[in-house]
Amino acid sequence: MSMNSSESVEMYVKSVAELGGDRQPVPIGRVAERMDVTPVSANEMMKRLGSQGYIEHQMYKGVLLTRAGLTMANNIIRRQRLWECFLVDKLKLDWARSHELACDLEHATAEEVVEALVSYLGSPTHCPHGNPIPEADSQELLETGVLLSELATGHSGRILAIRPESHEVLAYLHHRMLLPGTEVTVVEAAPLQGPLTLHMNDQEVVLGLNLASLVLIEELCCP
What we know:
Strand content: 15-25%
CATH topology of the domain at 146-221: SH3 type barrels
Largest sheet: 6 strands, antiparallel
Low-confidence stretches: none
Oligomer: single chain
Number of strands: 8
Radius of gyration: 18 Å
CATH superfamily of the domain at 146-221: Ferrous iron transport protein A (FeoA)
Order of helices and strands: HHHEEHHHEEHEEEHE
Number of helices: 8
Structural class: alpha+beta
């Protein structure tokens, strides 16, 4: 589905936020990869967003969200995660597919509809994938926990959230039952950035380090 100009701006701003652009500079190449566009296209959009006051560019480092950019990103993420709650909790649609569907809905949702969703859903605090739902016009991206990829061998944790979300990643993790609330223990970490062997639900699962870096956990205990 093609995006209009307004949707394109929103998607770029949200992508920068999801890549950590509220805390540290994000290389434009990573934004291009996330958006599935050429670096040239991403660079042109970064110039446009800079002129509109949504990002600032740090030479040789990347782009950071301004306060205005973070407010925009949080409002987009808020709409997306509320729709995810509605699609999964009320319509009983697929847990992994809900993210992609919500991304289509988030750009065409008026503020009165957002607030009606909040009321109808009972003011949820987290989406079905474990990520916090920002307050309206918030300038803070709420994030807790540590990355599963950083959990030491022998240590255990409870999965809090998957981020940044994508249908492919969510479907893969769902198939292996690596869901929010699941407790895992790192049995082995292969050398040279190799995969992790995890113990969970009386079985072992092997997960690549790149995927493990998308899983936020709450560490439970140390050996």
